[in-house]
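thoughts on my protein:
***
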Amino acid sequence: MCHNSAYASDSIDTTMKNKEPHQADVPSPSFDSGLLSNLSELVARWGSHRFQMAHGSQINNGLDFASNKVLYVLGRSGPLRPSALAEQLATGRANVSKLVNRLELRGLVHKVKDPHDARASLVELTPLGIELSRDAFRIGDEMLREMTADWSAQEVSIFSHQMARFTRAAAEYERRVSTTPFP
């Protein structure tokens, strides 16, 4: 349990929102840490279907949400094995196979041999796929500029630095406690 007051401040109170009247008197479980509460709220909101669909609707390339997500993941990660792509998309291999086949037919991805394992293949973006994936990144940049429009350049820089630092700490924590070996 964290007793540092810096962790307990500036928490967004979401405990009583969206509750039925008879539930209002029952306290919701919550974190002692305001930082963890805020981070949990951000991750839940950012990862919600509603947020993702609203953000994804800004991309006007004629592709469905799932296809655009494949382009985004491959644009961010580079070529991936279908199993790794399925993990990144939090879906099954059969679904990834269908998505990849659809995107191959449109000339947006292709399969190449894995240079580290001749038995395996990688899915990678074609030049047209790269071009379309850039839209997802451009729209993400626009979204973040809108969200931080009233922040100073220094505040954005500090936040970015702290997020990078926190992300490294989260990756190290994951490596330390994970029971699954890392590549």
Remarks:
- The mean pLDDT is 85.
- DSSP finds eight helices and two strands in the chain.
